[in-house]
Specification:
globular; Rossmann fold; eight-stranded mixed β-sheet; alpha/beta; disordered C terminus; hydrolase activity
C-alpha cells in the first residue's frame, strides 16, 4: 500500500489485524494451517501460518517468511499469496509470522517475535514436516531487515542453524547516509522522508545508537552468516544500503548473489518510463528460483556473483 502522507497517519487510518484464515482465498496445491505459539519471555503469543505443498512428504526445507510494511504496517494477510507460491515453487514449508508492530511495540518487540517463531520452527520441524538442517529466513523491505537481524542473532547465539537468507529491497541502515537515500527524497512507494519516519517509529524515543540487530548494516563483522540472495531496485532510496551490505557479506567470505533491477521503484511496485508487462513476472520468477536454489541445492552455495 503506497503511503502518500505520514506513516503515523497511515497507521491510524489503515492498521488492521489479519483476517480469519477461512476468509482468505485458497491456493491450489498448498495446505495452510494457522497456529499460536509461545512468544518471547514476557511477550504475548505469536500467530504463525504454515504453508505446505499438498501431499508433500516429510523433511522439506523450511523458511521463515517475514512481511514488510516499514515496521508499522502490514500483516500476514499481505504475504498470503507469496508465501503459498514460495511453498509450492520451492517445495518447502513456509512459516509466515505475525509480529508486533511499532509504534505501539517498538524494537525489539517485532524482532523478538520473529526470533520466537524461528526457534519454534526449528524446534517443531518434525511436527510441521520440515528438515531442521535446511532452515532459512526471507523478508522484503522492513521484513528483510528483520530477517537479516535474525541471521546475526542466530550466529551470535549459536543457533538455530540457517542455510540461507533471502532479502528483497531490504531496509538495513538507520543512518540514512547512502547516495541513493540522499538522492531519492520524493520517489513513489518509498523515499527518504518515509524512511526517516519509519526508523523513528521503530526505534522509539530516547534511544541512542541503533543496535546492530535493529540496523544490520551497523554490524562490524558479517562473517559466519548464511549464504544470501539480495535484490535491490534502481530507483529505491534503499538501493545502496542493500548493495553495500551484499558487498560486505562477500568481503566477509559469505556466498552472496546480488541483483539490482534498474529502473524499478521500491519493492518493485512500479518502474520509471513505460513499464514492461513482463518485468513483474521476471522478477518474481528470479526471486522464487533463488529461494529454491538456496534451500534445495545440497552441497552447493549460491553463486558469488550476480547482476549489479
Amino acid at each position: 500500500m503506497p503511503v502518500t502522507g505520514r506513516l503515523a497517519d497511515a497507521v491510524a487510518d489503515h492498521r488492521a489485524g489479519p483476517r480469519p484464515l477461512r476468509e482468505l482465498p485458497a491456493v491450489p496445491g498448498v495446505e495452510v494451517t494457522e497456529r499460536w505459539m509461545p512468544g518471547p519471555p514476557g511477550g504475548p503469543e505469536v500467530r504463525v501460518r504454515v504453508y505446505r505443498p499438498a501431499g508433500a512428504g516429510p523433511a522439506l526445507p523450511a523458511v521463515l517468511w517475514i512481511h514488510g510494511g516499514g515496521f508499522v504496517l502490514g500483516n500476514v494477510d499481505s504475504v498470503h499469496h507469496s508465501a503459498a507460491q514460495a511453498a509450492s515453487f520451492a517445495s518447502a514449508v513456509v512459516v509466515a509470522v505475525a509480529y508486533r508492530l511499532a509504534p505501539e511495540d517498538p524494537f525489539p518487540a517485532g524482532l523478538d517475535d520473529c526470533w520466537a517463531a524461528l526457534e519454534w520452527t526449528a524446534g517443531n520441524a518434525k511436527e510441521i514436516g520440515a528438515d531442521p538442517a535446511r532452515l532459512a529466513v526471507a523478508g522484503a523491505s522492513s521484513g528483510g531487515c528483520l530477517a537479516a537481524g535474525l541471521t546475526l542473532l542466530a550466529r551470535d547465539r549459536g543457533g538455530p542453524g540457517l542455510v540461507f537468507q533471502h532479502l528483497s529491497t531490504p531496509v538495513l541502515d538507520d543512518r540514512l547516509e547512502t547516495g541513493s537515500m540522499t538522492a531519492y527524497v520524493d520517489t513513489p512507494i518509498w523515499n527518504r522522508r518515509l524512511a526517516q519516519e519509519s526508523w523513528e517509529l521503530y526505534l522509539g524515543t530516547g534511544r541512542g545508537r541503533a543496535p546492530v540487530y535493529a540496523s544490520p548494516a551497523r554490524a562490524g563483522d558479517l562473517g559466519g552468516l548464511p549464504p544470501a540472495y539480495i535484490s535491490t531496485a534502481g530507483l529505491d532510496p534503499l538501493r545502496d544500503e542493500g548493495l553495500l551490505y551484499g558487498l560486505r557479506l562477500a568481503q566477509a567470505g559469505v556466498p552472496v548473489e546480488l541483483h539490482n533491477f534498474p529502473g524499478a521503484y521500491h519493492a518493485f511496485g512500479g518502474s520509471a518510463g513505460t513499464p514492461d508487462p513482463d518485468d513483474q513476472h521476471r522478477i518474481a520468477l528470479e526471486h522464487l528460483t533463488a529461494l529454491r536454489r538456496g534451500l534445495n541445492v545440497a552441497g552447493e552455495r549460491p553463486h558469488g556473483s550476480g547482476a549489479i
